[in-house]
Write a structure and sequence with these properties.
Number of helices: 0
CATH topology of the largest domain: Methylamine Dehydrogenase, Chain H
Strand content: over 45%
Distance between the termini: 32 Å
Strand order of the largest sheet: 3-4-5-6
CATH architecture of the largest domain: 7 Propeller
Shape: globular
CATH class of the largest domain: Mainly Beta
Order of helices and strands: EEEEEEEEEEEEEEEEEEEEEE
CATH superfamily of the largest domain: YVTN repeat-like/Quinoprotein amine dehydrogenase
Largest sheet: 4 strands, antiparallel
């Protein structure tokens, strides 16, 4: 889980299972990270910044932390997704409504012009079978559906309005739902991915300015991190001079009830993301 608090070091850092430092790749404004489902590769995007004009993603070999830059044509290439097949990586731009598709095998790129109003996509989530992808758009306040079964011929479908400033989102492993943190509305949107409509919203006293969202491998529990930028959350134990915490709530996906609230660091933001793989049947 990340934080919105500033840091002195700007890098992708690797630790062992024993929490020992292993290595790092230093570069300005690292953004989202995504591990390739089968290869020794990690992809890193860029955090949008007025001071950074870099136009590339970073491909990192996890075993030795060597890095290779994948050039893009637009600034602020922030959202990132990969098909479970591990064959294509998708990214877009906060500033330019254009999608770039990277062939993992030869790093050749193709482009898709996103249609409609100004979207400014910030996160993508790929369906477990790699045939659909939803994106959350900061400026339009919507979730937009794309067909990705043929990465060379992306098809843009409809958009669903979910509220102000939607952020991280995830498919369930059975591909029946999509969950999205809606930061500006203090809620989690629950999307029926079969009928492609909004089923409802989850609101709770432990959810305020939610950003990060992730789901367990079996799909039973959803984790949502909240920044609480106004310091409204009242911790169990309060000490003078300590900043107000953020939270991570645990949601039972069967009942959609919050079953636990965990106090986390100040400004708790995006959670770690992974490729959601199809859940075995039986």
């Amino acid at each position: 889980m990340g934080s919105t608090r500033p840091s002195d070091i700007q890098a992708v850092v690797k630790f062992s299972r024993e929490n020992q430092f292993v290595g790092q790749v230093v570069f300005d404004y690292p953004g989202q990270l995504l591990i390739h489902p089968t290869q020794d590769v990690l992809y890193a995007s860029r955090q949008p910044s007025d001071r950074d004009t870099s136009r590339h993603l970073v491909e990192i070999r996890r075993s030795d932390m060597s890095a290779f830059q994948v050039d893009v044509t637009f600034p602020d290439a922030y959202p990132i997704a990969i098909r479970p097949q591990g064959d294509f990586v998708f990214t877009s731009s906060i500033d330019v409504d254009q999608m770039m598709i990277v062939d993992v095998n030869d790093l050749k790129v193709s482009f898709f012009d996103i249609k409609g109003v100004k979207h400014a996509f910030s996160y993508f989530t790929m369906a477990p079978w790699g045939v659909k992808m939803w994106g959350s758009a900061l400026r339009s306040g919507t979730l937009t559906l794309f067909s990705t079964s043929n990465p060379h011929r992306i098809v843009q479908h409809h958009s669903l309005r979910v509220g102000s400033d939607p952020r991280q989102l995830t498919y369930s492993p059975d591909a029946r739902r999509v969950y999205a943190a809606v930061r500006g509305s203090d809620q989690v949107a629950v999307l029926n991915a079969v009928s492609e409509i909004i089923d409802g919203y989850i609101q709770h006293e432990g959810i305020s300015s939610p950003v990060g969202i992730s789901i367990t491998e079996d799909g039973k529990y959803l984790f949502v991190s909240s920044e609480f930028p106004d310091g409204r959350y009242q911790p169990r134990f309060s000490f003078e001079g300590e900043p107000a915490p953020g939270t991570v709530v645990v949601i039972d996906t069967e009942t959609l009830d919050v079953i636990k609230t965990i106090e986390a660091g100040q400004g708790s933001a995006a959670t770690g993301s992974r490729v959601v793989l199809p859940r075995p049947v039986g």
